[in-house]
Design brief:
Elements: H1 10-19, H2 24-31, E1 36-40, E2 45-47, E3 55-61, E4 64-69, E5 75-81, E6 100-103, E7 107-113, H3 114-123, H4 125-151, H5 154-171, E8 179-181, H6 186-193, H7 197-209, E9 213-216, E10 219-222, H8 225-231
Antiparallel strand pairs: 1-7, 2-6, 3-7, 4-5, 4-6, 8-10, 9-10
Helix pairs in contact: 3-4, 5-7, 5-8, 6-7
Length: 246
C-alpha cells in the first residue's frame, strides 16, 4: 500500500515489477529518476497532437485518457490510464505526438525528462526491457479496444470496458471488488465504445435490470462478476497481468 512517505514514482515501479524482474539497484534507479510533480485540473491537455515532447509523463493519481479527433470533430477515446501508468513513453522516440492526452479527473503527474530515461535504459538493460514490455502491453490493450469497437455489440462493449477498468484498478491497488471508480460521463463512455451517450445510458440501464451492476455518480459496483464477463466477451489475457493480480 502506498503511503505519504512512499517515493513518488513507486506506483510506476510497482506496475513495471508486475511483469518484469527488477533487482534492488534497478528499482532504486527508477525511483531516483529526476522529475517534477504537477497537479492538473480535469479536462486539461497533457499532450496535444502535433506537440514536440521533451518529457515523459507518469500518472501519480487520478485518471487520464488518450484520444484522436476525426475531421468531422468526432472524438475517439482509445485508452484510459490510471496511477502508475507511463502515459507517453513513445513520444521520446517519435518526432511529434500523434494523439491527445487529457485528464478525466484532477490528476497528479510526474514529468521526467526524456534524456534521463534514455540514460537510465543505457545503464540498466533490464529497465529498458521493462519499459519496452510496458509499451507492448499498451499495444495489446489497444488491439482489444479495436476489437471491442469493431466486432462487439453495444452491450458487450460497455460490459467489456467495465471489466477492464475493474481489473486494472485492482492491480494498481486503487479499488477492491466489487466497487470501482468510474470517472467517465456517459458521453465519454460513448466515445470509448463508439456509441452515443443515449445508447450508453440504455445499455447501462439494461445491465442494472439484469443484476450485473449498480452504478452511481463516479463509481460502479459489479454485482455479478461472472455474468458481466460473459456479457462483455471478456478474457483478461490481453492485460498480461500476473496470475496473482486482481
Amino acid at each position: 500500500m502506498l503511503t505519504a512517505n512512499t517515493p513518488a514514482l513507486a506506483a510506476m515501479v510497482n506496475k513495471l515489477a508486475q511483469r518484469s524482474k527488477l533487482d534492488a539497484a534497478e528499482t532504486q534507479a527508477l525511483l531516483d529518476l529526476p522529475h517534477r510533480a504537477e497537479m492538473i485540473d480535469p479536462g486539461r491537455y497533457l499532450v496535444r497532437e502535433g506537440d514536440k515532447a521533451h518529457n515523459c509523463i507518469v500518472l501519480l493519481s487520478g485518471f487520464v485518457y488518450r484520444s484522436k479527433i476525426a475531421g468531422n470533430g468526432a472524438r475517439q477515446i482509445f485508452s484510459i490510464h490510471l496511477r502508475g501508468d507511463l502515459i507517453d513513453l513513445q513520444n521520446g522516440l517519435l518526432s511529434v505526438a500523434d494523439h491527445n492526452v487529457q485528464t478525466l479527473t484532477r490528476a497528479e503527474v510526474a514529468v521526467i525528462p526524456h534524456r534521463a530515461i534514455f540514460a537510465l535504459t543505457e545503464a540498466f538493460p533490464a529497465v529498458a526491457q521493462a519499459l519496452w514490455r510496458d509499451t507492448l502491453v499498451d499495444g495489446s490493450i489497444f488491439r482489444e479496444w479495436i476489437l471491442n469497437v469493431g466486432q462487439r455489440d453495444a452491450h458487450q462493449r460497455v460490459a467489456h470496458l467495465l471489466c477492464e477498468l475493474a481489473l486494472r484498478q485492482e492491480a494498481a491497488g486503487l479499488a477492491e471488488s466489487p466497487s470501482y471508480k468510474l470517472p467517465m460521463t456517459q458521453e465519454q463512455i460513448g466515445d470509448a465504445t463508439g456509441l452515443t451517450g443515449v445508447h450508453v445510458n440504455r445499455t447501462m440501464q439494461r445491465m442494472r435490470r439484469e443484476g450485473l451492476i449498480h452504478a452511481a455518480k463516479g463509481s460502479v459496483t459489479i454485482t455479478d462478476w461472472e455474468q458481466l464477463q460473459k456479457a462483455g466477451d471478456f478474457n483478461r489475457a490481453y492485460l498480461h497481468l500476473p496470475a496473482t493480480a486482481a
